[in-house]
Amino acid sequence: MDSGTYDWRFTGDLEEFLGRAGSFLRSQPALHTVQLTVADKLRTEGLSAMGGKPPYFGWLADEDGTVRATVLRTPPYQLNLTSLTAGAADALAARLALDGRVIPSAGGPAETVAAFAAAWERGTGAAARLAMRQRLYRLGTFTPPEPAPPGSARVAGADDHGLVARWYAQFHVDVEEPAGQDPDRWAESRIAYGGITLWETPDGTPVAMAGATPEVAGQVRVAPVFTPAPLRGRGYAGAATASVTRAALDSGAEEVLLFTDLANPTSNGLYQRLGYEAVADYAVHEFSA
Fold first, then answer.
1. Which residues partner with 258 through β-bridges?
2. Would strands 105-109 and 276-288 be described as parallel, antiparallel, or unpaired?
3. At 246, is the secondary structure helix, strand, or coil?
4. Rounded CA Rg of the chain
5. Which of 68, 54, 121, 146 is nearest to 106 (CA)?
6. What is the phi/psi pair of residue 119, to 5°?
7. How far, rounded to the nearest angstrom, does the alpha carbon of residue 34 sit from its chain's CA centroid?
8. CB–CB of 272/66 below 8 Å?
9. What is the DSSP letter of 159?
10. Contact, 211 vs 224, CB < 8 A?
11. Boundaries of each N-acetyltransferase domain copy (predicted)?
């Protein structure tokens, strides 16, 4: 791997990263939604908000300083990439290996992550495995479910903390993905800004939840969406998702986004019926020694 022709710069200083790369990230808010929302969370809640170890940030710029790509990692979460050429991905892998970085997984645009995974394999001897295929959707014409299931939506409050924390933990069990954040801390953070909506049956029993990130650069991303297994198939997830989608539109969001697991045809079909349209394919690759 030859990193000489690609000048990747790294920092642990969030403000330096945003000062250098903020305009680049805001230039395509949908495609850069993950890095925008992660950076916003770190800026608002502190650098330890996503985990105990310090995050790091990187950018690739032309000779005139124009940023062309960015990368960040908030351990224990995956390395997150924006779109890269094969050469830039190869150089990034070389630089990270040279710096002794441990990379358990990487996520981003599907072709970019595949190129990085191949480069990481070549340079480190690690074995790469495609762990998840994802699709990024953006809301087109909003089409709420008709009829909606019996019940109504409400924003989760402090009294819902225990339920929200449990459902966050169970969501990660169901998708076979470790919960990177402490469930109690995650619930506290989301509830504090009104970032969780519950769907309740007419008797007031919560049966589903849908979250949304704060608006950054005009975009809001819906995540996570969860219904306990015994209550699935009754339209509760669709109703909760429609509620947070409507709230995002009412708040003035220019783009409402969400990711799906392409292995789950039910959720992909649901979101398309609500009016979400495919934007780009993403992927996660995991690495093992």
1. 137
2. antiparallel
3. helix
4. 19
5. 121
6. -65, -40
7. 5
8. no
9. G
10. yes
11. 151-289
> Do β-strands 219-226 and 255-261 pair in parallel, antiparallel, or remain unpaired?
parallel
Distance CA 89, CA 17 (A): 19
User: What number of H helices and E strands is found in the chain?
Assistant: 8, 12
Tokens 């650069």 — which residue?
217
What are the extents of the domains in the chain?
Answer: 8-125, 139-279
Residues with Cβ within 8 Å of 179's Cβ and at least 6 positions away in sequence, in order, are 168, 169, 172, 186
Supply 209's token pair: 């939840």
Mean pLDDT by 10 residues, the chain (289 residues): 74 98 98 98 95 93 95 96 97 97 97 98 97 97 96 98 97 86 94 98 98 98 97 96 98 98 95 98 95
Which residues are 39's β-sheet partners? none
- In the block, tokens 């890095």 appear at 35
Q: Fill in the amino acid letter for 164.
A: V
Tokens found for residue 134: 């994802």
Structure token digits, residue 116: 């990085």
Per DSSP bridges, beta strands 206-212 and 219-226 are antiparallel
| 139-279: CATH class | alpha beta
pTM confidence score: 0.95
> CA geometry: angle at 49 spanning 44 and 53, to 5°?
135
Element (H, E) at 133: strand 127-139
